[in-house]
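We were asked to recover a plausible sequence for a given structure. The inputs and outputs are reproduced exactly as logged, with field labels preserved.

PROBLEM: sequence recovery
POSITIONS: 544
GIVEN STRUCTURE:
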């Protein structure tokens, strides 16, 4: 079933013939462009969000203490632990691994879709995604996106192999490998379970009943074996609730609001569709100014129409696109229904970005083909070029050679705003100047640990009492000797005096009763400073 989907129009045919003749040069050029921009936009700093540092610390804990990396998907911390075990916490090297994963992902995507869909469609998709700074950003981050992007590609490869084999004969080995890939994706990101759902839906449409049975049994068997081994080694429960346990609630941090209702899940789907399609997706393809944060229901509807229209045409003309559409619909459906609206992070759709773009462009190309108008075909190709030019321009504008040069020379604070620079500098000071037995409480412990050369910190994220004796008792029971009070902005873009004040409020409650408990030992910065306090328990006569 190779290339049955060639566009009939003259304009498309000419472009397709040119892309076919030069496909090796084109994929090489795309990979070179991605590599150049990945280097120019390479970010050697730990992100303020904190998830990347959390992955690193879980890898460190696995290597040093044998602690199983629960809560988030375990596979990515286990992958990082290989590098940490060999080289230590080398931030640049860990980040470079993401670039390698994504670069290999581009090549593998090309190989899997080559000669199964039109070259014009394939190269349009790869060019736009590879030039988008939103996508490139993850080539220098220790987030799980890069690994997941690569892991999901074999799912397409094995399903496409089933499509190519139109006979009633079936081989069990590819299905076992497909099962391994699906389970690996699930263990990287929980949403990876959608790959199994997508494959089962496609097999149902294709009436591949035997393969469905083998796939279900093998996925269940592989996952059960993994859980059995995990339980035997760590004895930490059969299943990890982790982040997933908060998704059924209306608010992930205010569980007292109760669990979500059916109408609430429907509202999530609608709200998230608008957020991730009419805002984030358009930002990523350069068709919306990044400064514009508004959503647009009409644009969301248009994108859904293009997606559904392309899926319908693919059902009749191209099974490879059809499976891609089913996969994207499943992954986005899970994301839009399960996640609370407040997350609003484009990284949540990054692993599926290229596939989303491919199906939407396919819908546009099919619309142009149906019109049989050369002008419409030129407009569609012009839109592709405009999108590529727009993301290219935005990526160029994001390049900061001065910061990159200073980062490469060892100044890992360049590029941070003053609040983060001072906080992380204080963490480094703690790692160098305080005795080994000192145990310091902070708001962002994993980030602090990386800049303190692996020194452990105690994290204070929230508290459930205003009793000063109880709050001080908690510090004493955990043998906290110091506290860092930073000035981290609530709005990262503006220094308006409003800060994340969890630590401030914690210390304030205690100091109202015991004003001499906290002794200022060190300060870094005058604008948005960070303070280091020593906890003097004797001043409160705690425990007497």
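RECOVERED SEQUENCE:
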């Amino acid at each position: 079933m190779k290339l049955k989907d060639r566009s009939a129009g003259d304009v498309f045919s000419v472009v397709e013939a040119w892309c076919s003749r030069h496909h090796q040069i084109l994929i090489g050029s795309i990979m070179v462009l991605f590599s150049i921009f990945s280097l120019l936009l390479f970010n050697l700093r730990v992100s303020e969000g904190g998830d990347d540092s959390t992955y690193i610390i879980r890898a460190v804990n696995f290597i040093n203490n044998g602690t199983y990396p629960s809560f988030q998907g375990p596979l990515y911390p286990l992958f990082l632990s290989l590098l940490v075990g060999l080289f230590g916490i080398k931030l640049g090297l860990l980040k470079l691994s993401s670039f390698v994963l994504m670069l290999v992902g581009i090549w593998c995507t090309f190989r899997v879709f080559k000669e199964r869909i039109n070259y014009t469609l394939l190269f349009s998709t790869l060019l736009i995604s590879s030039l988008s700074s939103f996508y490139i950003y993850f080539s220098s981050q220790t987030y799980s996106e890069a690994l997941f992007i690569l892991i999901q590609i074999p799912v397409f490869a094995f399903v496409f192999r089933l499509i190519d084999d139109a006979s009633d004969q079936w081989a069990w080995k590819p299905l076992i490998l497909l099962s391994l890939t699906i389970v690996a994706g699930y263990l990287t990101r929980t949403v990876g379970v959608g790959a199994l759902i997508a494959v089962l839906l496609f097999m149902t449409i294709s009436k591949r009943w035997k393969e469905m049975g083998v796939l279900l049994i093998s996925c269940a068997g592989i996952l059960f074996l993994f859980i059995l081994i995990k339980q035997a080694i760590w004895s930490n429960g059969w299943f990890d609730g982790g982040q997933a346990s908060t998704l059924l609630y209306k608010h992930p941090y205010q569980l007292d609001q109760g669990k979500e209702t059916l109408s609430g899940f429907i509202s999530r789907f609608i709200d998230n569709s608008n957020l991730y399609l009419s805002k984030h997706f358009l930002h990523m393809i350069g068709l919306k100014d990044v400064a514009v944060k508004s959503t647009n229901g009409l644009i969301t509807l248009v994108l859904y129409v293009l997606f559904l229209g392309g899926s319908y045409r693919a059902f009749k003309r191209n099974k490879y696109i059809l499976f891609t559409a089913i996969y994207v619909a499943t992954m986005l459906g899970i994301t839009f229904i399960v996640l609370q609206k407040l997350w609003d992070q484009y990284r949540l759709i990054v692993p599926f970005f290229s596939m989303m773009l491919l199906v939407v462009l396919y819908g546009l190309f099919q619309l142009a083909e149906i019109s049989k108008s050369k002008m419409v075909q030129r407009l569609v190709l012009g839109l592709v070029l405009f999108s590529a030019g727009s993301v290219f321009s935005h990526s160029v504008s994001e390049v900061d050679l001065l910061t990159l040069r200073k980062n490469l020379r060892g100044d890992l604070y360049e590029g941070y705003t003053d609040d983060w620079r001072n906080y992380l500098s204080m963490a480094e000071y703690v790692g160098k100047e305080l005795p080994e037995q000192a145990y310091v409480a902070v708001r962002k412990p994993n980030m602090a640990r990386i800049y303190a050369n692996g020194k452990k910190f105690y994290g204070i994220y929230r508290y459930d009492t205003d009793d000063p004796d109880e709050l001080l008792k908690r510090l004493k029971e955990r043998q906290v000797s110091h506290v860092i009070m930073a000035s981290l902005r609530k709005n990262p873009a503006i220094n308006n005096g409003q800060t994340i004040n969890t630590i401030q409020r914690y210390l304030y409650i205690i100091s109202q009763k015991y004003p001499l408990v906290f002794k200022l030992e060190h300060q870094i910065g005058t604008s948005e400073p960070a303070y280091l306090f020593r906890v003097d328990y004797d001043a409160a006569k705690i425990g007497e």
